[in-house]
């Protein structure tokens, strides 16, 4: 079970809301932290909120995040992080579902708020 601590915020110029970051408390350093995962996806926030279009910078971030999450532990950690962040910001679920395909990235789990990150 992921224990939440070290809450940080990443602010976007497109909204007054911030994406919170949750990280696991112990264990070896992960290749991709929650903060890094959210930073990769910050260019996608307007698209995911339904107030902007998808951009090349957004897809570059999606692809970089996919490349950075190499182990199953990384993928689980990032999955949990993004799941928590999506609950805090008004994300358009249809846009979130479309994002990997639009950016030509395969994700091992469906992009859904109730996804099982252990899968």
Secondary structure layout:
Blueprint: E1 5-11, E2 18-23, H1 34-41, H2 45-48, H3 56-68, H4 72-88, H5 93-102
Antiparallel strand pairs: 1-2
Helix pairs in contact: 1-3
Question: Notable features of this structure?
Answer:
transport; Hydrophobic Seed Protein; alpha+beta; two-stranded antiparallel ribbon; 119 residues; Non-specific lipid-transfer protein; Bifun_inhib/LTP/seed_sf
Radius of gyration: 13 Å
CATH homologous superfamily title of the domain at 34-110: Plant lipid-transfer and hydrophobic proteins
Q: Can you tell me the residue ranges where pLDDT is under 50 for at least 5 consecutive residues?
A: 1-30
Shape: globular
SSE pattern: EEHHHHH
> Biggest sheet, in brief?
2 strands, antiparallel
Under CATH at level 1, the class of the domain at 34-110 stands as Mainly Alpha
User: Between the first and last Cα atoms, what is the distance in angstroms?
Assistant: 14 Å
Report the average pLDDT across residues. Answer: 76
Q: What is the share of helical residues?
A: 40-55%
The tally of helices reads 5
CATH fold group of the domain at 34-110? Hydrophobic Seed Protein
Computed structural class: alpha+beta
The CATH architecture of the domain at 34-110 can be named as: Orthogonal Bundle
Q: Strand content of the residues, in percent?
A: 5-15%
**Strand order across the biggest sheet?**
1-2
Number of strands: 2
């Amino acid at each position: 079970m992921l224990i939440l601590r070290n809450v940080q915020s990443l602010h976007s110029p497109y909204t007054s809301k911030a994406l919170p970051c949750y990280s696991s408390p112990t264990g070896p350093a992960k290749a991709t932290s929650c903060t890094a995962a959210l930073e990769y996806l910050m260019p996608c926030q307007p698209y995911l909120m339904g107030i902007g279009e998808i951009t090349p910078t957004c897809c570059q971030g999606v692809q970089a995040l996919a490349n950075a999450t190499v182990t199953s532990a990384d993928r689980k950690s990032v999955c949990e992080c993004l799941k928590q962040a999506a609950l805090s910001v008004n994300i358009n679920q249809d846009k979130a579902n479309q994002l990997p395909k639009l950016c030509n990235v395969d994700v091992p789990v469906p992009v859904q708020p109730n996804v099982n990150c252990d899968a």
